[in-house]
Design a protein that fits this description.
The protein is an alpha+beta fold and about 110 residues long. The protein has one domain: Ribonuclease H-like superfamily/Ribonuclease H (Nucleotidyltransferase, domain 5, 2-Layer Sandwich), CATH 3.30.420.10. It contains two helices and four strands, in the order E-E-E-H-E-H. It has a four-stranded mixed sheet with strand order 3-2-1-4, covered by helices on one side. Strand 1 and strand 2 form a beta hairpin. The protein starts with a strand and ends with a helix.
Length: about 110
Amino acid sequence: MIVGVDVCHAGRNSIVGLAATYTPHYTQHFSRVYTQNLHRELIQEERDERNIEDRINIMSGFTAKALKNYENHNKKLPARIVVYRDGVGGPSMQKRVLEVELGKMTEAIKSYR
């Protein structure tokens, strides 16, 4: 299964787009789009933390739904999952994505069922 994740910003919101393939040739995909409030009333550091937490919850929930969709179509779970993550800023954000987002997605995969 190949999973793609991207985040873009539109005014006072972030748009989180996720897609996951579910066919052997990766030609069909399960996708969802979520809108995330940027919590502009908070100071920058608090806002960043809250936005990251919200995004992690979105990604964890999507991961479980994508696995269920894959299993419904294939009667088994994927042997491998490759995640492409776009919309990541500089090195500090890349580190955070690897540590936090990927960790939570891994937890969602392990706890599925």
